[in-house]
From TrEMBL, chain A:
<dbReference type="InterPro" id="IPR030667">
    <property type="entry name" value="APP-BP1"/>
</dbReference>
<dbReference type="InterPro" id="IPR000594">
    <property type="entry name" value="ThiF_NAD_FAD-bd"/>
</dbReference>
<dbReference type="Pfam" id="PF00899">
    <property type="entry name" value="ThiF"/>
</dbReference>
<keyword id="KW-0175">Coiled coil</keyword>
<dbReference type="GO" id="GO:0019781">
    <property type="term" value="F:NEDD8 activating enzyme activity"/>
</dbReference>
<dbReference type="GO" id="GO:0120500">
    <property type="term" value="C:NAE1-UBA3 complex"/>
</dbReference>
<dbReference type="InterPro" id="IPR035985">
    <property type="entry name" value="Ubiquitin-activating_enz"/>
</dbReference>
<dbReference type="InterPro" id="IPR045886">
    <property type="entry name" value="ThiF/MoeB/HesA"/>
</dbReference>
<dbReference type="GO" id="GO:0045116">
    <property type="term" value="P:protein neddylation"/>
</dbReference>
TrEMBL record, chain B:
<keyword id="KW-0547">Nucleotide-binding</keyword>
<dbReference type="InterPro" id="IPR033127">
    <property type="entry name" value="UBQ-activ_enz_E1_Cys_AS"/>
</dbReference>
<feature type="domain" description="E2 binding">
    <location>
        <begin position="354"/>
        <end position="443"/>
    </location>
</feature>
<keyword id="KW-0067">ATP-binding</keyword>
<dbReference type="InterPro" id="IPR035985">
    <property type="entry name" value="Ubiquitin-activating_enz"/>
</dbReference>
<dbReference type="GO" id="GO:0120500">
    <property type="term" value="C:NAE1-UBA3 complex"/>
</dbReference>
<comment type="similarity">
    <text>Belongs to the ubiquitin-activating E1 family. UBA3 subfamily.</text>
</comment>
<dbReference type="GO" id="GO:0019781">
    <property type="term" value="F:NEDD8 activating enzyme activity"/>
</dbReference>
<dbReference type="GO" id="GO:0005634">
    <property type="term" value="C:nucleus"/>
</dbReference>
């Protein structure tokens, strides 16, 4: 080999520090995270634990908003307050102790409550990439959530009370290219080989040294000829077994690629079609009616749709990812090359269509780069769009809520606790004090009447059990650190998903019961 | 060692515990039947309850914080590791200036400074440096480990500390509950183990994902993936060329640089793409991705179980929680079952089936002990008592001189070694602090399924 000896690159200091997470969301995910700023409304243990989960991985910046001062009872559950700050502004204290975790992150604070900001300078929130709030009363929550909805700023709202915790994500629209599915199906196109693949398959002799894909193709072709109805691949257990037997019959001892071909019969077929999620994206109005203000995701989605329907006979662009197969190096690399080349070609076609649309919209050509289109094409089968709902909608009658009631019972203990926590927040708004802070018995009655009215206002003919309301009052407003750490950890990851546009966030309410260690996610 | 004995009256006056006191001093409809709401509960957590946290890494840092703020006043922590740059994205008790220092000592210092009601005692040591007299002093043990071997070892230790009544039942006062957490990327689990009563680590060994191993012939002759090229340099080329005259050290950037350059050369030669510096590091060091959030969640789930067990305020989890937040947030709790034939906690003698004692060698038996999902041993040492009553060391890899003396036995057949059907072998391994008895079963006419 005459090529010069490769030189080892120096990884940057940041790249080393964040190595363990960059392995998950990549340098491009890290770049988005480092460019983002969030606002933490209300200093609570759950809020601070959420912020901690963002400061450590290196979010760009955070601003803490809280109008109160540090009291002794705040020290028991919040790691980001300590006795030296007693009497000082909470926002300042927790900003300092959070910022100290990571010098890469900018910390800021305002000594103002959410109510004050909303009343006096509500546009304060508009510049953030996301707002995290926790343990508010009902009135403040609804005003804040509406403000953020109008400003198109996503909101993560956390509750942590006693052994209960919830996370609510309010976001208008969230488009995900890299969902990172746990079990990715390889898209091999054996049923519909593209020209280059067909030529390669037809022109290569099947030996015990070639990848199983060639073995499978050989016997699939024979099997296809035996089908009278033009079936291209085995559809059921019986047909798959026919194919497996056909391969086994021809297999000599110890042919690993034949063994692998037999195993692959179950998973090798069926990819490349338009999955339901993608179909919905193609039929979405946002995909249909592009405008200058369209998210680039929708421009690329429309180009993708055009390619699939008009240029590729209904098949997705080829992802070009080949699983490892026992084979000699040359035959594997040759096959891999064919898949990769086709994937590039497909993506280039989609890219050109994107450029056509950009021109029509009179947007600059560099609005969309080739790299993004290649990524979109590789991930086409898993593209996903989340359309959120307003928090305030949950406080109106809706069919989504009615579905939670069955035989006059709320479905499951977790749902009941979610509504009990809402009744708790209404209690805070109406009485101005915390249920169970002083007397448990009396407050159970008051909470029960609030809960009863709340449920009937929502048109939900169900009651929350006395036990659940008793448990809520028993806490007397106690926020337990470990429950907040659990919820804060989850919430931080949801924020990272929203910011990096990778992995699917919750849609839209996560409820956790630490007594039973059970959880559920509801779309409210 | 500092002894911490705060005044109980002061604890209860301290407003910092107002919230926790509501939960511990009020009756509730979901409390455990034998829970008695009283100020004694918090006093117990603050003064008498002694916990051991094993590991001061991603989970350990979180556990110490969570337990300190859940009212526990007396914690010990063991960790043999020192702090590295790549820990700082999640091990939040450490700063850049701490790189190179003991994790246990640094973590303890931070918690003691931040939470005045808690005293953490650090041990910059291996778990194997302590014996049962040390482990005996704790009410509960919480593990935040990344090593399966270490988990198996402490599991074995706690099982060996069980005492039995005359009727064979376990003396319940000898049980030290073990709460174990594990994470990998966006996935994690938390479990409660009551040694002898509920499924132990060995009962569910198959839950750990198998390590990826590439066949040697692929690495040497038919590489296809960048990983194959890296493994080639690591396994074959390093020893052959011995570039720095020392074994490969994954933490030495010069070493990784050399592996990267050679692996890239090999990849170019075979037209293989995708060798990156990060991938080289990952393959050489077996790096598992890790984020702050998953560690926070799993540690919190563990801390909550510790809190339930220590106070009886709620029933503890039975017994295994799976967590995953790749797609939304998913949790699933189920009861992992005790395995009837568990190596560690069932008291059932283990058998190894041998096809033909005249062709099966000692090495074959050792290979079976390492490869079989049931045993998964690492480098077992085998001794036995021969027919004449004499103790015989069949093979021992851990002591160099004995290894040399017993190496010849590896290639001998069991017949040649004079071992008989039903022969009992005493097997020791790094995966357990105590020895295990394995019985040889020579395959006769009856076929036993293993």
């Amino acid at each position: 080999m005459s090529s010069p000896a490769p030189k080892s690159p120096e990884l940057s200091d940041k790249s080393k520090k964040y190595d363990r997470q960059i392995r998950l969301w990549g340098e491009h995910g890290q770049t988005l995270l480092e460019a983002a700023t969030v606002c933490l409304v209300n200093v609570t243990a759950v809020g601070c634990e959420t912020a901690k989960g963002l400061v450590l991985p290196g979010i760009g910046g955070f601003t803490v908003a809280d109008g109160s001062t540090v009291k002794e009872e705040d020290l028991g559950n919040n790691f980001f307050l300590d006795p030296t700050y007693l009497g000082k502004p909470k926002a300042f204290a927790c900003m300092q102790l959070l910022q100290e975790l990571n010098p890469d992150v900018n910390g800021d604070y305002v000594e103002e409550s959410a109510d004050y900001i909303l009343a006096n300078r509500p546009n304060f929130f508009d510049s953030f990439d996301l707002v995290i709030a926790s343990n508010l009363n009902e009135k403040t929550l609804l005003v804040l959530a509406d403000r953020l909805w109008d400003a198109n700023v996503p909101l993560i709202y956390c509750r942590s009370l006693g052994m209960m915790g919830t996370i609510r994500l309010q976001i208008r629209e969230h488009c995900i290219v890299e969902a990172h599915p746990d079990n990715r199906q390889f898209d091999l196109r054996l049923e519909h080989p593209f020209d280059a693949l067909r030529q390669h398959l037809d022109g290569t002799e099947v030996t015990n040294k070639v990848p199983w894909l060639l073995v499978l193709h050989k016997y699939l072709s024979i099997w296809q000829k035996q089908q009278t109805d033009g079936t291209l691949s085995p559809r059921n257990y019986k047909e798959k077994n026919q194919l497996r037997e056909a391969i086994r019959d021809e297999m000599k001892a110890d042919e690993e690629n034949y063994e692998e071909a037999i195993k692959a019969v179950n998973t090798a077929f069926g990819a490349g079609q338009i999955p339901l999620g993608l179909k919905a994206i193609f039929e979405d109005d946002a995909c249909d009616q592009l405008s200058k203000k369209s998210n680039v995701f929708w421009i690329m989605a429309k180009a993708l749709k055009h390619f699939v329907i008009h240029e590729n006979k209904g098949h997705l662009p080829l992802p070009g990812v080949l699983p490892d197969m026992t084979a000699n190096t040359d035959s594997y690399i040759a096959l891999q090359h064919i898949y990769r080349q086709q994937a590039m070609q497909d993506a280039d076609q989609v890219y050109h269509k994107c450029q056509d649309y950009l021109k029509q919209l009179t947007l600059p050509a560099d609005t969309i780069d080739k790299r993004s289109v290649r990524l979109l094409c590789r991930e086409a089968a898993g593209l996903s769009v989340l359309r959120g709902t307003r928090v305030a909608e949950e406080y109106e009658k809706s069919s989504r809520l009615l579905a939670l009631v069955e035989d006059n019972e709320l479905q499951g203990n977790l749902t009941a606790f979610n509504f009990a926590l809402r009744a708790y927040e209404r209690f805070l708004s109406e009485y101005g004090n915390i249920p169970g802070e002083c007397t448990v018995e009396q407050d159970i009655g008051r909470l029960k009447s609030i809960a009863g009215k709340m449920m009937s206002d929502l048109g939900m003919h169900a009651t929350i059990s006395d036990d659940v309301l008793h448990e809520i009052c028993r806490y007397g407003g106690a926020e337990l650190h470990a429950v907040s750490a659990f919820i804060g950890g989850c919430a931080a990851q949801e924020v990272i998903k929203v910011i990096t546009k990778q992995y699917k966030p919750i849609d839209n309410t996560f409820i956790y019961n630490a007594i039973t260690t059970k959880s559920v996610t509801l779309k409210l | 060692m500092s002894v911490h004995s705060p005044n109980p009256a002061l604890i209860l006056q301290n407003k910092r515990w107002n919230g926790l006191r509501n939960v511990l001093e009020r009756e509730g409809p979901f409390c455990k039947d034998d829970f008695s709401a009283s100020s004694d509960n918090l006093e117990f957590l603050q003064t008498n309850c002694k916990l051991l946290v094993i590991g001061a890494g991603g989970l350990g840092c979180e556990l110490l914080k969570d337990l300190a703020l859940m009212g526990f006043g007396n914690l010990h922590v063991i960790d043999m590791d020192t702090i590295e740059l790549s820990n700082l994205n999640r091990q939040f008790l450490f700063r850049r200036t701490d790189i190179g220092s003991s994790k246990a000592e640094c973590a303890a210092r931070f918690i003691n400074g931040r939470v005045p009601t808690c005293r953490v005692t650090p041990h910059f040591k291996k778990i194997q440096d302590f014996d049962e007299t040390f482990y005996q002093q704790f009410n509960l043990i919480v593990c935040g480990l990344d090593s399966i071997v270490a988990r198996r070892w402490i599991n074995g230790m706690l099982l060996s500390m069980l005492r039995y009544e005359d009727d064979g039942s376990i003396d319940t006062t000898s049980i030290i509950p073990m709460i174990d957490g594990g994470t990998e990327g966006f996935k994690g689990n938390a479990r409660v183990i009551l040694p002898g009563y509920t499924a132990c680590i060995e009962c569910t060994l198959d839950l750990f994902p198998p390590q990826v191993n590439y066949p040697l012939c692929t690495i040497a002759n038919t590489p296809r993936l960048p990983e194959h090229c890296i493994e080639y340099v690591k396994i074959i080329q390093w020893d052959k060329e011995s570039p720095f005259g020392v074994p490969l050290d994954g933490d030495d950037p010069q070493h990784i640089g050399w592996v990267y350059e050679r692996a890239l050369e090999r990849a170019n030669e075979f037209n293989i793409t995708g060798v990156t510096y990060r991938l080289v590091q990952g393959v050489v060091k077996h790096i598992i991705p890790a984020v702050a959030s998953t560690n926070a969640v799993i540690a919190a789930a563990c801390a909550l179980e510790v809190f339930k067990l220590a106070t009886s305020c709620y029933d503890y989890m039975s017994n295994y929680l799976n967590f995953n937040d790749l797609d939304g947030i998913y949790t699933y709790t189920y009861e992992a079952e005790k395995s009837e034939g568990c190596l560690a906690c069932s008291n059932v003698p283990q058998t190894v089936t041998v096809d033909d004692p005249n062709t099966t060698t000692l090495e074959d038996v050792i290979k079976q002990l390492c490869d079989s999902p049931r045993f998964q041993l690492k480098n077992p040492s085998l001794t036995t008592v021969m027919k004449d009553g004499k103790q015989k060391t069949l093979y021992m890899s851990t002591v160099k001189s004995i290894e040399v003396a017993t190496r010849k036995n590896l290639t001998q057949s069991l017949g040649e070694l004079g071992l008989q059907d039903g022969q009992q072998l005493t097997v020791t391994d790094v995966t357990s602090p105590s020895a295990m008895i394995v019985q040889l079963k020579f395959q006769g006419n009856e076929i036993e399924m293993v």
